[in-house]
Amino acid sequence: MLTLGIETSCDESSVALVLDGRQILANVIHSQTDHSKFGGVVPEVAGRVHLRKIVPVYRQALSEAGVSLDDVDLIAATMGPGLIGPLLVGLTFAKGLAFAVGKHFIGVHHIEGHIAANLLEHPDLQANHLTLIVSGGHTMLVEVRRFGSYEILGATRDDALGEAFDKVAKLMGLGYPGGARLDRLAQQGDPKYHRFPRALLKEGYQFSYSGLKTAVALFLAKLSETEFERHKADIAASFQEAAVSVVVEKTVRAALERDLHDVSISGGVAANSRLRVLLAERLSAIKRRLFYPSVELCTDNAAMIAAAGFYRYQDEGPGELAINAVPYLRLDE
Ligand SMILES: Nc1ncnc2c1ncn2[C@@H]1O[C@H](COP(=O)(O)OP(=O)(O)OP(=O)(O)O)[C@@H](O)[C@H]1O
Ligand SMILES: [Mg+2]
């Protein structure tokens, strides 16, 4: 079964073709660079860029996959959560296509898409597993009972982990979005240079990242220009160590308490090199298996949306063309 996936929830316009929820025939991603001068995504600008890009990206995906719209069985698009303008572009385009050519359509939860990135690439990941979702907008520990059935164990009270990476990267002059650049810089630094706070480390499965960002801002304000230049990589590494330690600690604890053998990380920050290494070490010590998507499938892409749409369709059949975009959509609803 061939699924056409469409993702436009934030600042990536992406269209993919995925066979049977597993085999990626094409996954074209246009990442908007128009926001870097503003230091964050401007919703109105994002919506307009999606409008310009969606048709060319769609055409390129069909051509790379070597298929035509006739060959497609199901059209899946992100319906939320995300920015309303951007969401509406992809969702309306998908519904229009499905209506015009009489194909089945299904709306996809963006975070279920991130979770599905692991299923897409790892056929041996158990249906019942623990996933740590760490992205630009979410930080959550979730028990996946089976695909489509979720229990949220805890989430962030304020900033998401990816947001903390982006804000600290911006404070350090690394540009926006700077998570991946901060990761690269941190690889040359000493994580023990300074101990930044690890909020709520021992308390349940809740997270808080706004204090860490402020702690870095206050630390930077006290440094001279030369000290900053000399210790840039050390500061990045120290921030990253604090940020990552908290999610690692809680994930390990949840795997034990919930007695779950398989653990996955989903979302943009799943690409973080230190998170992967630290979590792999800690989980292997307690004989748990760790799964994460390849770097390209960690951040927003339509292949994960096509996969999630395909799995949902297996369970529920096609969705309604009448559905609307929902900017705040819970995973467990
Ligand atoms: N190597 C990395 N280390 C740390 N952070 C990273 C890395 N690569 C990407 N990120 C971060 O991942 C985030 C983007 O991930 P993603 O595309 O999943 O987020 P989003 O779609 O904006 O948010 P959400 O999925 O919650 O709606 C950004 O905050 C980015 O800085
Ligand atoms: Mg995302």
Question: Could you characterize the architecture of this molecule?
Answer:
- The structure is a single chain.
- The chain folds into 2 domains: 2-115 and 297-316, ATPase, nucleotide binding domain (Nucleotidyltransferase, domain 5), CATH 3.30.420; 127-295, ATPase, nucleotide binding domain (Nucleotidyltransferase, domain 5), CATH 3.30.420.
- It has 10 helices and 10 strands.
- The protein has helices spanning 43-65, 84-101, 110-121, 161-171, 179-186, 210-221, 225-257, 273-285, 295-298, 302-316, and strands at residues 2-7, 12-19, 23-31, 74-80, 104-109, 129-134, 139-146, 149-155, 262-266, 289-291.
- The protein has a 5-stranded mixed beta sheet, sandwiched between helices.
- Strand 1 and strand 2 (12-19) form a beta hairpin.
- The mean pLDDT is 97.
- Magnesium ion binds at residues 110, 114, 135, 267, 300.
Q: Tell me the number of helical segments per DSSP (H or I, 4 or more residues long).
A: 10
Query: Roughly what is the average pLDDT, rounded to an integer?
Result: 97
State the fourth-level CATH superfamily of the largest domain: ATPase, nucleotide binding domain
CATH level 1 name of the largest domain: Alpha Beta
Write down the Rg: 20 Å
Q: What is the number of domains?
A: 2
Overall 3D geometry?
Answer: globular
User: Whole-Å distance between the termini?
Assistant: 27 Å
CATH architecture of the largest domain: 2-Layer Sandwich
Number of strands: 10
How much helicity do the residues have? 40-55%
Sheet with the most strands? 5 strands, mixed
* Beta-strand content estimate: 15-25%
SSE succession: EEEHEHEHEEEHHHHEHEHH
Q: Name the quaternary structure.
A: single chain
Bound small molecules, which ones?
A: adenosine-5'-triphosphate, magnesium ion
Strand order of the largest sheet: 3-2-1-4-5
CATH topology of the largest domain: Nucleotidyltransferase, domain 5
Q: Any low-confidence stretches, pLDDT <50, length ≥5? A: none
SSE class: alpha/beta
